[in-house]
Amino acid sequence: MLEVNIHELKKRLSEYLERVRNGEIVVVCKRNRPIAEIRRLPEKDTSPRPIGLAKGELVVPPDFLDPLPEDVLEGFYGPPTE
Questions:
Q1: Is 76 a domain residue?
Q2: What are 37-57's pLDDT values in tens digits?
Q3: Considering the domain boundaries, does residue 60 fall inside one?
Q4: What is the 3-state secondary structure (H, E, C) of 32-57?
């Protein structure tokens, strides 16, 4: 772990970022007191997501496309107006 003051970090930012890229942790200090930490982010997973992991777990009931009951429609639209 490397400690560096803000002024030094600003002067040589590219160098410190390269060190972070290589796995080092840089602790940023203000007047020799730690205030932040710079560390490498984990690699992003770029593999394609698998398809069909939940196949067969969802069953659509036969009445899925039937009209909704009146009490449910009232919950959306309020009581019917004549």
A1: no
A2: 999 999 888 999 899 888 889
A3: no
A4: CEEEEEECCCCCCCCCCCCCCCCCCC
Phi then psi dihedrals of residue 30, to 5 deg: -120, 115
Quote the mean pLDDT of the chain.
93
CATH number at residue 11: 3.40.1620.10
Secondary structure element (H or E) that encloses residue 76, with its range:
helix 70-77
Give the per-residue pLDDT at 58.
87
Check if the beta carbon of residue 21 is closer than 8 Å to that of residue 42: no
Residue 3 in 3-state DSSP? Answer: strand
Query: In angstroms, how far apart are the furthest CA atoms of the chain?
Result: 77
